[in-house]
Amino acid sequence: MSNEAGIATTAPEPAPEAEPSPLGLGVSLPHADARAKTEGTFPYAADLWAEGLLWAAVLRSPHARARIVSIDTTHAREMPGVRAVITHEDVPGTPRHGRGTPDRPVFASDVVRHHGEPIAAVAADHPDTARMAAAAVIVEYEVLDPVTDPEQAFEAEPLHPDGNLIRHIPLRHGDPEAVGEVVVEGLYRIGRQDPAPIGAEAGLAVPRPDGGVELYLASTDPHTDRNTAAACYGLSPDRVKIVVTGVPGATADREDQGFQLPLGLLALRTGCPVKLTATREESFLGHAHRHPTLLRYRHHADAEGRLVKVEAQILLDAGAYADTSADALAAAVSFACGPYVVPNAFIEGWAVRTNNPPSGHVRGEGAMQVCAAYEAQMDKLARKLGLDPAELRLRNVLATGDVLPIGQTVTCPAPVAELLQAVRDFPLPALPKDTPEEEWLLPGGPEGAGEPGAVRRGVGYGLGMVHMLGAEGADEVSTATVKVHDGVATVLCAAVETGQGFTTLARQIVQDTLGIEEVHVAPVDTDQPPAGAGCRGRHTWVSGGAVERAAKMVRTQLLQPLAHKFGMSTELLQITDGKITSYDGVLSTTVTEALEGKELWATAQCRPHPTEPLNASGQGDAFVGLAFCAVRAVVDVDVELGSVRVVELAVAQDVGRVLNPAQLAARIEAGVTQGVGIALTEHLRTPRGLVRHPDLTGYALPTALDAPDIRIVKLVEERDVVAPFGAKSVSAVPVVTAPAAIASAVRAATGRPVNRLPIRPQAAVAADR
């Protein structure tokens, strides 16, 4: 052919058609927002802006416990640029809030009960002005001696009108007179960890013309937060709206409600949009942490190593307020014996208030603390009996059909033995060479001070379990709507994407069910029906189940006219790779052709089977489902310096069904790495109730350089028949299990008991040194 200038050209060869990308469940579909987050263009709450914006700051208590004599806001109000100063006197509605138990004041009035408790809030035209005005609020305190030892809380004067004891669970299972031929005891302490979200809390409040307010927050449970805010503001829930902005990571209940509530109060008071961006220090002081825990254990076993009885006392430090401590205690007591068959169990559990920072929901709460203790006990038993630690565990592992100490039968898949055998049989990593080129292998890292001759290798095991969804009668329900228009599907569900991959899963469910490639998940706000909190694998199960049901209803709407036309039922039609075909091949068309000119939609709910509260003896069918994990840790320990390097963590996990292989592997690896921090570095120190070094310099998170080789050696896909898709939660159980395995490996390397997490250097110095 020729162009306009008469020059001969050659037509390009048509490009070969690209193979269509696989869609649906079981495929590693990437996150829809992955590119935006990588490039830094994803909008988080800290990026929000509004015309006429004011800035907020909060004054927090410098004391762990004090009586408030007076609050003088005069100087703050008179500062140029200050638009409002509010205290407890300016809360028009319910003055208390709390995730589980509403026992926390919006602003302290008579007393402060923990370091960092909010006293007042300020709105001003510049963030520096707001902070200076907050500092100008004069508070006269009568400082009191804080109660920081949870054991002293039983005898101390009441720190709260509701008393110091939040919950007591006495679990009684089997024969109290049963004894074993071999008995081991231990006392264990678990420190306080912070969820340390990637981004500190931030939010924007915008007043509405009807006298209500809209809150733009990184909330993980927007409807609960909306209801709490409305009660605090003295408004009906329909006049408060929460719009969920980008959540910069969440390993717990992401937002501190004590941060959210002043924001809306200031917007209502000033009539202007108000923005609050917390500093990292404020973030550490405000949100809930993992419960520090004291555990006493006594294990009885027969001469063959089979467990006869477990006795334990578990004390959770809830800090100043209850939050979700009752739930954490239920998990701790229920899983106090681990994934082992224990015919007789007698557990006492308490959660108490102190003047320490508040504790609450952090991934694997309750289960992580007891896992570290019961696995230490299993190591002690193995050593006393002269058995291999893995062999001892295999003789006792739980299986489907066994009964938990709470009396609930395990009806879900429980392949604990298979998981343990997989990590035990996986080849061990090679030993490091004693050469200068390999100095980086020393526990001290590059240029480390240690000597290769002082390094010992240890191998340890951990078996862990967690429950999925809420427990003890919690009404778990989620609602979703699927709409199809012009060949594009949209999912509306108030399940918040916190990084767990729900938006990706929702797209895959619709692709799998309807054969539509282009699927969008709408932003979340409280105008949508509630979906509940984003924790314990809820959204994979409950919200994913709701999306699936809605998509199947749309599928029926799509297929019914075709089935009627050809005189067959919809069950005889299938959708594969965007094509609709009948069982006999008579009908063959594309989903796009079948959808032409149609707009379809359906709304559905998913509600798992009910559970029941634990009774006075700690008995009851309290959990919907369980997930299990086995971890083998290999560590190198400098037994002179006490420094520890995690060489490798081999992981085997029962996942029910792999819905997105890449996403699942990432969640497991992230959970295991979080467990490394819990085991070795993460400890929020609070001497006399005061948070020391509330920043990411003083609080040592593991970095990429601290992450060991993580080998996912086996994923057991035995579907849970009561779960949508048969899938199980995957994020929490490796967090629960990895710290126990690392501690076990350090025990093997040093001969020391290692009864505290995180592991202190003095605990990792060899017993024979």
Automatic annotation (TrEMBL):
Annotated region (Disordered), positions in chain: 1-27
Domain of life the protein comes from: Bacteria
InterPro entries: Ald_Oxase/Xan_DH_a/b (IPR000674), Ald_Oxase/Xan_DH_a/b_sf (IPR036856), Ald_Oxase/xanthine_DH-like (IPR016208), AldOxase/xan_DH_MoCoBD1 (IPR008274), AldOxase/xan_DH_MoCoBD2 (IPR046867), AldOxase/xan_DH_Mopterin-bd_sf (IPR037165)
Pfam families: Ald_Xan_dh_C (PF01315), MoCoBD_1 (PF02738), MoCoBD_2 (PF20256)
Annotated Aldehyde oxidase/xanthine dehydrogenase a/b hammerhead domain residues: 39-145
Protein name: Xanthine dehydrogenase family protein molybdopterin-binding subunit
